[in-house]
Fold each of these.
Amino acid sequence: MVIFKTARPLTAFLADARAASGPIGFVPTMGALHEGHLSLIRQSKAATGLTVCSIFVNPTQFNNADDLKHYPVTIESDIEMLIGAGCDVLFLPPVAEVYPAGHEKLRYDLGALEAVLEGAYRPGHFQGVCEVVDRLLEIVEPDHLFMGQKDFQQCLVIGRLLDLTNRAGRTALHVEPTLREKDGLAMSSRNRRLTPADRAKAIRMSQVLVGIRDRFASTPPRTLEQTAITELTEAGFKVDYVSISNRHTLLPLEPGDPAAVALVAASLGPVRLIDNLVLDSSAPTAG
Ligand code: AMP
C-alpha cells in the first residue's frame, strides 16, 4: 500500500495509475477503522482496478468540540487493517493539505435534507461533510465512491453533492449495507468509547429498529416512533429522534407510503449513536 500525505503527488500518481489499472474506487473515512470500513474497501476492490482510502478527521463537520477532541485515533492499526484488506493507496493528509491557504468555503444547497434529523441536531454538519468530500473528490477524482448505509442521510447528501458539482456522470455512488456486531449493534468508531455497561445497553438500538420493522405493516408510523422513543429512554438512552421517513426525502412518512426507512439517533452518556433500517420489503435491509 502506498501512503500519501500530500494532495498533488497523489493526484499525479492516480492520473498514471488510472491508465494502467483502470477505474479508481474511493473510500473516505475518519479512521478508527472496523470491519464496516473494510467491507467498503472489499466492495471497491471487487468493482474497480485501484482502491484509495482516505483517513482524515475533518474538523469542519464536528458541531461539537468535545466530540472532535475525543474522536478515536488508531492510525497504526488502521494501516495494518488496510494492508490486510488489500487497499492500494492511503491518503493521510494533515488539515493544511485538505484546506490550504486560500481554500474557498462554499455554501452547498442541500435543501430540506439539511433541515431534518442529523441536519437539525448537528447544525453545519452536512456543510462540513460536503466541504471535505468535495475537496477529496477533487484530489482523488474517483470513478466509484463507496459509502455506508449506516450514515443514511449522509449518503443522500453526497448524492446531492455529486449532482450539485456536476460529478454525477463521472463518479458513481455505491451505498453498501451496514455491518453489525453479532448482537446487532451497528459497527461504529464511536462504539469503542462506550463503557462496558453502556455497550450492553447499546444493543437496544438495533432491537428497537427491528421491532419497528416487524410492526410496520400493522401500526401507524407516529405510534411506532413514540413507542420506540419510550423503549430507548427506558433502556437508558437520551433520544434525539426516532423517525420513520420517506427514504428519498427523509420527510416524515405519510401513512401508506411504502418507501420507508426508520432512523434513530440517541446517546449513552457522552457517546451519540445513529442507526437505521430500511422498511420496504423490496429494498435491501440491514440487520
Ligand atoms: P466514518 O469513518 O465514520 O466517517 O465512516 C466512513 C465510511 O464508512 C462512511 O461511508 C460510513 O457510512 C461507513 N461506515 C461506517 N460504519 C459502517 C458500518 N457499520 N457498516 C458499513 N459502513 C460503515
Note: The radius of gyration is 19 Å.
Amino acid sequence: MRLPTRLTRALVRLLLAFSLAAGVMLVSSTVNQAAADGCFTWNRTLSQGASGEDVRQLQIRIAGYPGSGGHLAIDGAFGPATRAALVRFQQAYGLSADGVAGAQTFNQFYALQDDDCTPIHFVYAELDDGCGGSGFDGGPLSESATRFNALKTMWQLEALRHAFGDRPLIVNSGFRSIACNRAVGGASNSQHLYGNAADLAAGSQGFCRLAQQARNHGFGGIFGPGYPGHDDHVHVDIRTSNAWSAPNCGIALTELAAAEEPDI
Ligand code: ZN
C-alpha cells in the first residue's frame, strides 16, 4: 500500500480547515444569535438600581405587568416597581422569577419582538389611522410621539393576550387623526387621538373577561358593556390614571370615568 501522496495530505489539510471553519461558524452563530436582534440588544444584566436606555427598553416590554390597577413608568430607572413588574413577566413566561433581567429574560424579549420593536402578535398597521388611512400623523402629537404611544399600547396588549393563553385579540380601531376622530364623532379628548387606545372585539375571550383582565395590565382607561356606546367593543387605553367603567361586567364607574364623554 502506498503512503498518502502529497496531494492526499493537502486534501486532508483542506478538509480539516473546512471543518474547523464550519465549527467556528457554528459556535459564533450560537453566541451571537441574541446580538443579531434587529430591534434592540441588551448587553448587560439589569437589576434594581440600574438606569439607562436598556432599562427603558426593558420597561416598555414589561409595562403590561404592573399589577392590578398599577402603571409602570417608562423612565429608564430600575426601581422597585420595575422589579415587581419584571417578576410578574418572568412568572408569566415560566422563567426563574428573580427580578433580575439576564440572558433568559432578554432571550424571551428577542422571541417576543419583531425587528421594528413591535411585539410579535401586533403590527403598527392594526393601530394606525382608524378611518382607512395609514400612519400616525394628523393627531395633536408629533407622528413619532404618537407612534411610540402605539408601540407601548401594543406591548400592553401583548401582555393581555398572553394572559388568555395567547389567544388572538382583535383590534377594531386604534389611532385616529383629528379629522378622523371628528368624522366618527369621537370625544374631543379621546385617547385614540394620541395613539394610546385600542378598541377590542369580543374575540374568543368575550367583552367582560377582556375588560376585567385589562385591569391587571396597566390600562388606565377601560370602557366596556354597560358604559354608553360600549356594548359592542371594549375600549382600553394606556393613560396612567384609572378611568374604568363596564357596569355589566362588575366594573363600577370610577370618578374619572364619570367625567368622560361617553363616546371615547
Ligand atoms: Zn375607544
Note: The chain is about 40% helix and 5% strand.
Amino acid sequence: MVIKKIEPFIVTHQLSRNFFFSQWTYDTRSICLVRITTDDGIHGWGEGYGPSSLVKAGIEYFKPVVLGENALQEEKIWQKMYLHSLDFARRGVLLAALSAIDIALWDIKGKALKQPVSVLLGGRKREQVKPYATGLYFSNEEKLSDKLAEEAVSYKELGFEAIKMKVGLGLKKDIKNVEAVREAIGPDIELMVDANHAYSYREAFQLALSMEKYDISWFEEPVSPENYDCYVQLRNKTNIPVAGGECEYLRTGFMNLFRPRCVDIAQPDICAAGGLTEVKKILSLAQTYGIDFVPHTWGTGIALSAALHLQCNQDIMPGRLYESEPFVEFDRTENPLRDELVSPKFDIENGRLVVPDKPGLGVDIEDDMLSKYLEK
Ligand code: MG
C-alpha cells in the first residue's frame, strides 16, 4: 500500500459575524486539510491545527519523506517525519503538518482493514461520547453578559450537560459574565471557563477565588503556557481544577506539564500535538500521572471525528463500576467546515455524539463540498 499522492487543501469560510476571545478576533475560519492517496486507490483525510498557509507549507516539506512509504506503517512514518523536524520544530506548526499526515494515515489504515479508527486504536469502549459546548465568545454588544446568558441557555435547551465560556476581558467583566451565565443555566449544568492564557498568576488567582462559588468544572489556560511554575502555584491555591495543553506538543512537551503537576486536565490538540499516533501516547502518559484527558478540538469534522475515536477508545482511570464519561469538545460557533464539509453528518442521540463506525475516520469529503470551501 504505497503512498502515491499527498495533497494539502486550504478550506475557508467568511463568518457572517466576527467574534473574539482574549487574544484576537475571528472573521474567517481557514483550515489546512490533507488528502493522501495510495497506489491501491484508497485515500485518507487529515487536518492540521494552526495557520493554514503554514500548515500547508509543512505538509509540502514532509512530502519527500512520506511519498513511497507503506501507508500502513504510520509509526515508522511518524518517526521519519519527527527526525526530519526535530532540530528546528519541537513545537509549532510543523508538528501540525506532521499531525495532519498522521491522521490521514490512520484513516487509510482503517479503510484498508475495513475497521473504524477506534478499533485500530485498541477498541471501542463506548459508542457515544459526551460533548461539551464550546461557545460564549465575546462580541461588542452592549449587554454582553445578557447575550452570553441567552446563548448558554440555548445550549442547555439543546441537551448539553456542560458548557465552556470565555474569560479574559478583565476580572470585573469576567465575573459579571460568569455570574450571569451560571444564574441563567442553574446549578445542574457543568460550566468551564477558558482564559486562553490572558492572565498573570496574580490575576488568575484573584479570578479563580472569585469564581469558586460558581461551581466551575475547570479553569482552562489561566496563565501563559510558558509559565509552568505559575500553573503549579495556581493549582495549589484554588479548588477549581486547572486545564491546559492546547499550546503544548509531543510527549516530551506534556512531560513539562505533567511532572510538576501543572494541570488536572490535559488538552492536547490531536491535529497539532503529534496526530493520533502521538496523542494516544500522551493519553497514556496523562493516565500514568492520574491526569484527566480531554483533547482540544477546533476544526472541521475530520478533527472532530479523530477526537471522537480517541475518546471512544479511552479507558476511564481509575476504573469503577459506575464509570464517568470522557468529554469531547464540540465547538458551537459558526463553522460550516465542521457541519457541512464532511459527510455523513454527526449524529447526536440523548445528548451524546455518536462515534462514527464506518471504516477509517468514518467521514469523508465529497469533491463538490471540497470545491465549495476551497480557498480561492
Ligand atoms: Mg482553549
Note: The mean pLDDT is 97.
Amino acid sequence: MANEFPQAMVIGGSDCDGSAGIQADLHSFFMRGVYGTVALTAAVAGNSYGIHDSVTLPLPFIAKEFDVLHDDLDIKATKTGMLADADLINTVADKLEQYDFGQLVLDPVIMTKFGDMLLEEAAYETLKARLIHLATVMTPNFYEAEHIVGRKLPDKQSIVDAAKELQDLGCKNIIIKGRRDPNAATVDDYVLLENGKSFWLPAKFYSTDRRNGTGDTLSAVIAAELAKGNDVESAIRIGRAFVSNAISEPIAVGHKFGPINHWANEPIRP
Ligand code: PXL
C-alpha cells in the first residue's frame, strides 16, 4: 500500500496535562484530518497552575526518532515546539538538513504563559543560525519576536520591521502574534508573506484564563494545512480562525489556566 495519506510531524515536548506541547499539536493534526507523528524532545510536568518540572531526552534517542520516521513515513510538513537548549537545536537542525520532512513551521517556543522558560537564553543565537533559514513559516508571539530580534517592539511599525528582519534571516513567511492594544477589542497578528504581501489579521479578544495551547495549536494547524498541500496564506488564516473558535468556547479542565477547546471546530474527516 502506498504511503500517501497526509502526515505531519511535531518536534517538541510533552505537557502532561494535555493543554499544550505535543498533546495540543496532535489534537490539532487530528481535527484537521492529518496523521500526526512526534519526535519527542522533552517532557514537562505541567498542570493548569504551572510547569513543575521538566526533562530533556537523550540526543542520540532524539536523532534516532528522526531516522526511523524517515525510514518509514512520508511526512509532508513539520512543526517545532519545545527545543530546550542549543545542543538539542543542533541535533534537530542536523536531522532536518539530512532528511526531507516537508515544509517547516518554526514555532520558536521560549516561555510559557506562567513565565517558565522552555528555551534557554543561550540558545537564541543557535535558533537563529540553524533553524530560521530552514523555515517556510515562523510563528513567534510578540514576546518571542522581541527576544529573537533583541529589542522591544513598542508599536506597529516596529513589528513590521521585525518581521522583515526575520525574513532577511531566511524564513520565507512570518506571522508575529498577539499585539494587543489595551483599548481595542481585537488582538492583532501581523503577517508577512514570501511574495512581499503583508497584512494585519485582527481576531476578537476573549477574556478567559483558558488559553493554554493557543500558540502550539496555531502552528500545528498551519503545518497540517501545508501537509495537505494548502498554500501558506490560507494555512495561516485557517489556523487563526481555528484558534479563535477554540478560545471562544472554553472547556472545564483544570482549576486555573486551562486548555483551549479544539472541539469548538468542525473536524475534517480525511
Ligand atoms: O505552549 C507552549 C508549550 C510548548 N511545549 C510544551 C509546553 C508548553 C507550554 O506549557 O509545556 C511542552
Note: The mean pLDDT is 95.
